[in-house]
Specification:
α4 packs parallel to α11. The termini are far apart. Strands 1, 2, 3, 4, 5, 6, 7, 8, 9 and 10 form a 10-stranded antiparallel β-sheet that branches. This protein has 15 helices and 10 strands. It is of the alpha+beta class. Helix content is about 30%, strand content about 15%. The protein has a domain of about 300 residues: Catalase core domain (Catalase HpII,  Chain A, domain 1).
Length: about 550
């Protein structure tokens, strides 16, 4: 089977060199100048094997390095045509194949997949219009809301630059960063609860976290957040069990999913969106561009639109999982726009850029990343499409570079006046609009109604964006940051879950080497709930000294706004 789920014709397999010619000698025998002499430089079989071995690893992902995945099928069960003209969300019953990758965030590829950490859940849908990605996490919020903090946050999850020890040995850096950036409290309240240690990739949820903007054919915007919910509920491990498995079975989740699919199980997820109008967004208590906040379900109920079924294991991990490249840029297909969430905006650059570094400038031409669309029949009479047996039918002006498999032949690499250019331009209805993209662009394109609509959008965005800046401190801390996690801890967690939460925090934070950081951890949670801070202080064996929000900020000083 190839990455698109199609059966390939069986061929005789012959051991050969990379040039395709059969190799007539034994693969394990080098060529020597004489029986007791040195090997020969002319032994290109040896040279080819050693050179390939030296280069057979691509750089590890900086984040989400530890992971695995499988093939899937997406089905649209309910149309979203009233809020978006995006092609995959129109016709009920539409199906397409895809691929999903599950991962932890902070650890290297050799770290345990049961570690307490968020899980990345990234989907690639091979639609006939092009590749469409969802790049989600298994928590609906994140540690930060300002893109500039992302690199340093990830650094704080990695190994110490001097000792090279990670947080399994010393958690000082981990908690030092979090307590100096209190907007992280919502994510931490989720992560040190049960959901921080999922029992199964196939039995956990996934969320966009970010707000996206769906646009319908009338040009009306609707903010949306995606939710992908497991059919079996969110199964979790206790912190102690997860820690035990980290030592005895570090690939526990990966092995579990592989075995499930091998045994014929087909785990299923239901797909939903929450929707919010721009008018609602201006009245919403929080900013829709704040990645540390959720949309309450009572105000913005879930609307089902599809299902995802995990179908089978991949045939080759490296080719289909290690080389697969996801990006939020592929979420933003015609009919879906990114919001002004600064972290999302940065990800639009970062994700494709890291894949260009890892896999090369033409990484989207690799089979697992190649779109199957635009008239590439897999076989005669087959209505399905694949990019396995044909070059791109899509054309753009990106050319050359390493590993350029399909360079668009004689097509000019600009909009040409030549009648021989076969390049076409189409709109969202798949109708040709070539004239619109040729010649001089006239000002009349920006009609009065369009300008009026854009001005209304700008007005709403100013109100939404301003909500993020309404904080006590420029550094990014507000009483609002504690409202939702406080409700989660006090109203959602039951007594047993609260005890486990304290146990999980104490077990992790007890590895802090710096007493000042350990004390700040207790105050960090004390801002959420004073009794919680006190009991964590008792567990860590440090004095309990509660502070208010302003006092907390002053414990490490307040920087100038300039």
């Amino acid at each position: 089977m190839n990455v698109f789920g199609k059966k390939e014709e069986k061929q005789e397999k012959v051991y050969s060199l990379q040039n395709g010619f059969p190799y007539s000698h034994h693969p394990y025998a080098s060529q020597y100048s004489r029986p007791d002499g040195p090997i020969l430089l002319q032994d290109f079989h040896l040279l080819e094997n050693i050179a390939s071995f030296d280069r057979e690893r691509v750089p590890e992902r900086v984040v989400h390095a530890k992971g695995g995945g499988c093939k899937l099928e997406f089905e649209l069960t309910d149309s979203l045509s009233d809020i978006t003209y995006a092609a995959p969300y129109q016709k009920v019953g539409y199906k397409c194949p895809g691929l999903v990758r599950f991962s932890t965030v902070g650890g290297e590829s050799g770290t345990p997949d049961t570690a307490r950490d968020p899980r990345g859940v990234s989907f690639k849908f091979y639609t006939e219009w092009g590749n469409h990605d969802w790049v989600f996490n298994n928590t609906p919020v994140f540690f930060l809301r300002d893109a500039i903090k992302f690199p340093v946050f990830i650094h704080s999850q990695k190994r110490d630059p001097q000792s090279h020890l990670n947080q399994f040995q010393d958690t000082t850096v981990y908690w030092d960063y979090l307590t100096l950036n209190p907007e992280s409290i919502h994510q931490i309240t989720y992560m040190f609860g049960d959901r921080g240690t999922p029992a199964s990739w196939a039995s956990m949820n996934a969320y966009s976290g970010h707000s996206f903007i769906m646009v319908n054919k009338e040009g009306k915007d609707t903010y949306v957040q995606f939710h992908v919910l497991s059919d079996t509920g969110f199964e979790t491990l206790t912190g102690d069990k997860a820690a035990e498995l980290s030592g005895s079975h570090p690939d526990y989740n990966q092995a579990k999913l592989f075995t499930q699919l091998q045994n014929g199980e087909k785990p299923k997820f239901n797909c939903y969106v929450q929707t919010m109008t721009p008018e609602q967004a201006t009245k919403f208590r929080y900013s829709v561009n704040d990645l540390t906040k959720i949309w309450p379900h009572k105000e913005f109920p879930l609307r089902k639109f599809g299902t995802i079924t995990l179908t089978e294991n991949v045939d080759n991990y490296f080719q289909e999982i290690e080389q697969v490249a996801f990006s939020p840029t592929n979420t933003c297909i015609p009919g879906i726009k990114p919001s002004n969430d600064s972290v999302l905006q940065a990800r639009l650059f970062s994700y494709p850029d890291t894949q260009r570094h890892r896999l090369g400038a033409n990484y989207q031409q690799l089979p697992v990343n190649r779109p199957r669309n635009l008239g590439c029949p897999y076989s005669k009479g087959d209505s399905q499409y694949t990019a396995e047996q044909c070059p791109f039918k899509a054309v753009n002006f990106q050319r050359d570079g390493p590993m350029s498999y399909y360079n668009f032949g004689p097509e000019p690499n600009y909009i040409s006046s030549s009648p021989n250019q076969t390049l076409k331009f189409k709109n969202e209805d798949n109708n040709e609009v070539s004239d619109k993209f040729k010649g001089i662009v006239l000002d009349e394109v920006t009609e009065v109604s369009v300008r009026k609509q854009e001005q209304e959008q700008i007005r709403n965005e100013h109100i939404v964006d301003a909500k993020i800046n309404q904080y006590y401190y420029v550094y990014g801390m507000s009483p609002l940051d504690f409202e939702q996690p406080r409700a989660l801890f006090e109203k959602v967690y039951n007594d047993e879950q609260k005890k486990l939460f304290v146990h999980n925090v104490v077990c992790h934070a007890c590895k802090i080497k710096d007493p000042k950081v350990k004390k700040r951890v207790t105050q960090y949670f004390g801002l959420l709930n004073e009794d919680l801070g006190k009991v964590i202080a008792e567990g860590l064996g440090v004095p309990w000294e509660p502070v208010d929000l302003e006092g907390y900020a002053k414990t490490w000083s307040i920087a100038s706004a300039n």
